[in-house]
Write a structure and sequence with these properties.
It is a single chain. By secondary structure, the chain is α+β, with helices and mostly antiparallel strands. The protein has two domains: about 90 residues; about 120 residues, Dynein light chain 2a, cytoplasmic (Beta-Lactamase). It has four helices and five strands. Helix 1 runs parallel beside helix 4. It is rod-shaped. The protein starts with a helix and ends with a helix. The mean pLDDT is about 75.
């Protein structure tokens, strides 16, 4: 009986150990599965976060590139105008060259109208495609008067006056002197990149055309 009891006890102990082992194995398997699922979820979350970050970085880079291009556009356009105006020459002392010269300025600067007036507001020359040059001459005279008023109030005379109208067209009046005579070069453009110094590169050409021969 004692031997049977011992054998029975050993069998029971083995069964308990085996059941505990199997329970532990099953529990470990479940833990490993939960851990695997958790790691997979974390990996997917990190992947989605990385994709969102990459898209946001790309959007910010595109926005920054657009901003830089918008800021630099007027400078690039001014340099383009300066270089293009430097490529053609004029003959000094020949006022008959003024109209072709204004045509070239209009073409290079993408201006719809270019007009040169004297101090009294009388047109000296206009680009051939100019529309209503007399009206533009009157407008340039008023803009010159505005510049005079600003100069009297501020103590510094403006060199240019730029006005944008409701049709999104911009009128730029550049005031300068040649041989003591006050002149105004006025241009109309639909280009939003137009700046107050856009006509500056053309002044040297006009001065050369108006200068007297030695």
């Amino acid at each position: 009986m004692t031997i049977i009891a011992i054998i029975t006890g050993l069998g029971a102990a083995i069964l308990l150990l085996t059941a505990g082992y199997l329970f532990g194995v099953r529990r470990g398997s479940l833990s490993r599965e939960l851990l695997r699922q958790h790691v997979q979820q974390q990996a997917e979350a990190l992947n989605q976060l990385s994709e969102r970050y990459s898209q946001r970085a790309a959007d910010q880079e595109g926005s920054l590139r657009t901003t830089i291009q918008r800021v630099l556009a007027p400078l690039v356009e001014r340099e383009r105008l300066s270089l293009d105006l430097a490529q053609f020459s004029t003959s000094a002392g020949q006022r008959r060259d003024l109209a072709p010269l204004l045509d070239k300025i209009a073409a290079v600067g993408h201006f719809t109208t270019v007009l040169l007036c004297n101090e009294e507001g009388l047109p000296l020359a206009a680009s051939r495609a100019s529309q209503t040059p007399d009206r533009l001459a009157a407008a340039s005279t008023r803009l010159a008067l505005v510049a005079d008023q600003i100069g009297e109030e501020q103590g510094i005379a403006p060199l240019s006056v730029m006005v944008r109208d409701a049709s999104d067209a911009t009128t730029l009046c550049r005031i300068f002197r040649v041989q003591g005579q006050r002149l105004s070069l006025t241009a109309v453009s639909n280009d939003s990149r137009l700046t107050s110094v856009a006509l500056d590169p053309a002044l040297m050409k006009i001065e050369a055309a108006l200068s007297t021969r030695s």
